């Protein structure tokens, strides 16, 4: 198959041969929110994704956002802090995504966050800051009450 204005297209020809288009993007699955540029010397693209917290999850968003703000002062090891940050970001992604939060996925993300904070809450994590154990216990208790 060929279009005189764009060149070959992707798809089978009448004689069963497959022709591929290498002159632009080809999408084999649904695409949403993509920005594309090709055959440019320079390009500037901007995209703004304003996400809102799903209704009913405002308190959870505030708690997790506050947790992320306080986490660096908790005195966790880099690995423990990274685990807690990743789990917190998963929670926020689930409650601010374009789709309504999936309860199972949200529950697993919150459990991951509680698990990341558990060594601090139980006093097992070495090197935590003074007051971090009580802080972690309070956050875990609050998370349990919100999901």
Could you please describe the fold and organization of this structure?
By secondary structure, the chain is mainly alpha-helical. It is built from 4 helices and 4 strands, in the order ββββαααα. The protein has helices at residues 58-70, 78-96, 103-121, 132-146; strands at residues 2-3, 7-8, 11-12, 18-19. The strands form 2 sheets. A two-stranded antiparallel sheet has the order 1-2. Strands 3-4 form a two-stranded antiparallel sheet. A hairpin with a 5-residue loop joins β3 (11-12) and β4. The chain is elongated, with a radius of gyration of 24 Å. It starts with a strand and ends with a helix.
What is the element layout, followed by pairings?
Layout lengths: L1 E2 L3 E2 L2 E2 L5 E2 L38 H13 L7 H19 L6 H19 L10 H15 L1
Query: Uncertain regions: pLDDT < 50 for 5+ in a row?
Result: 1-10
Secondary structure tally: strands: 4
Mean pLDDT: 79
Pattern of helices and strands: EEEEHHHH
Cα separation of the termini:
55 Å
Which band does the percent of strand residues land in? 5-15%
Give the overall shape, derived from the CA principal axes: elongated
Q: Strand arrangement, largest sheet?
A: 1-2
Radius of gyration, in Å, reads: 24 Å
Largest sheet: 2 strands, antiparallel
Category from helices, strands and their pairing: mainly alpha
Q: Oligomeric form of this entry?
A: single chain
């Amino acid at each position: 198959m060929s279009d005189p204005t764009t060149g070959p297209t992707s798809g089978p020809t009448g004689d069963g041969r497959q022709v591929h288009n290498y002159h632009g993007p080809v999408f084999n699955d649904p695409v949403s929110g993509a920005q594309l540029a090709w055959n440019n010397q320079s390009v500037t693209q901007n995209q703004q994704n304003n996400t809102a917290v799903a209704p009913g999850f405002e308190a959870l968003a505030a708690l997790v956002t506050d947790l992320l703000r306080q986490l660096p002062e908790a005195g966790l090891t880099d690995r423990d802090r990274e685990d807690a940050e990743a789990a917190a970001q998963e929670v926020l992604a689930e409650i601010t995504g374009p789709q309504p939060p999936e309860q199972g996925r949200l529950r697993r993300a919150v459990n991951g966050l509680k698990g990341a904070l558990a060594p601090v809450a139980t006093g097992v994590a070495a090197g935590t800051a003074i007051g971090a154990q009580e802080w972690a216990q309070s956050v875990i208790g609050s998370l349990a009450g919100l999901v």
